[in-house]
Write a structure and sequence with these properties.
Elements: H1 2-25, H2 41-71, H3 76-90, H4 97-114, H5 117-140, H6 143-170, H7 189-192, H8 196-216
Helix pairs in contact: 1-4, 1-5, 1-6, 2-3, 2-5, 3-4, 4-5, 5-6
């Protein structure tokens, strides 16, 4: 399931790259996220922990463990979509909203399907570790080697993802099926906003996005 979801993440990243290319053609550019070069192994390990390990644990506990469960009484589809939107705006990088939103949906479905938050943590960690390795190679080795390494990782993920897709179809496994319950009630945004914690989270995320947009687009 983890490799199947990573395969879908790659597809969303490709779509996002195409969209950013179109925006570039009309003069809208966003800064590329970069890893600060370092030769210190301890510094690199600390950076890895803070970018791959800690987010995988604490973001899952917050978004899937708390917010998703808080929204579930309003219906699974509503809870998954709204929690994914909150997960998306938490990251503030507008240029990666599409893959992050898709990741939020898949992580929520995986959590609901398995009933085990450690599985969604594992997927979150694999995705963050993959992104970290790509950034590290791009910053520390020559262009040819970094492109080759990225192509190798992507090829491994695609092959494993296709194999996982075949296996899951034969085993009749579909994590998105958790959203297919037609008997659940329809929810509205006002119902979800009854939680003051959720309202505060949405307001903070909105302010963070506004600040990030001002910085990225050089409006000030």
């Amino acid at each position: 399931m983890v490799m199947h979801c990573m395969f879908l993440f790659i597809g969303l990243a490709v779509i996002n790259s195409l969209l950013l290319s179109l925006l570039h053609r009309v003069g809208i550019d966003f800064p590329v996220q970069q890893l600060h070069p370092t030769d210190n192994i301890i510094s690199l390990l600390i950076y890895f922990i803070f970018t791959a390990v800690i987010p995988a644990v604490f973001e899952e506990l917050l978004v899937r463990g708390y917010i998703l469960n808080l929204l579930l009484p309003n219906g699974k589809r509503f809870a998954v979509i709204l929690s994914a939107l909150i997960f998306m705006v938490m990251h503030t990088q507008v240029q990666s909203f599409i893959p992050v939103f898709g990741a939020g949906v898949l992580l929520a479905c995986l959590y609901l399907y398995t009933g085990n938050i450690y599985v969604s943590m594992a997927l979150h960690f694999v995705n963050n570790a993959y992104s970290f390795m790509i950034m590290y190679m791009q910053q520390t080795v020559n262009a040819v080697s970094s492109v080759g390494f990225a192509a190798f990782l992507i090829s491994v993920i695609i092959c494993c993802g296709i194999a996982a897709e075949i296996y899951m179809r034969k085993a009749n496994i579909n994590i998105i099926s958790v959203l297919a319950d037609k008997t659940e009630k329809n929810a509205s945004l006002t119902q979800a906003m009854h939680s003051p914690v959720l309202v505060l989270a949405v307001l903070c995320c909105g302010l963070a996005i506004a600040a990030q947009l001002v910085t990225d687009l050089g409006l000030m």
